[in-house]
Amino acid sequence: MSELILKGRDFSTEFIFSASRSSGAGGQNVNKVNTKIELRIIIGQSLLLSDEEKALIIEKLRNRINDKGELVIVSQSERTQLRNKQKCIEKFYELIVQALTPRKPRKPSRPTHASILRRMETKKILSAKKSLRRDIRDHE
Length: 140
Fold this sequence. Notes:
Elements: H1 2-6, E1 16-20, H2 28-32, E2 36-42, H3 51-60, E3 70-75, H4 81-100, H5 113-133, H6 136-139
Antiparallel strand pairs: 1-2, 2-3
């Protein structure tokens, strides 16, 4: 499915990578080595996306796009820059495919006869229970 949507497009020329120190446990490796990778791509300036695709991506991924119009993806789970870079690229392609995949329209369904009967029976039971709470004078 993803091959159909992206049609062999290679976004690597549009990626902007930056490295920094990862947070969390890891000892000397974390304290010394810049293994956290940030992938940035300016969706609005992409030459590989049509205007409709850009609009769809910007709408669906608006929470991940900053004020400058950059889609920002971060990875710091691995111990090396290379693996974090690969993870960022994988996340990017997953997000793009997800954003460009059209949603199936919902088919409205009707309640079954049995579920309607169950609902009506429950309503009768609750009604009877509440009627017993009323003042005795109301029952006369």
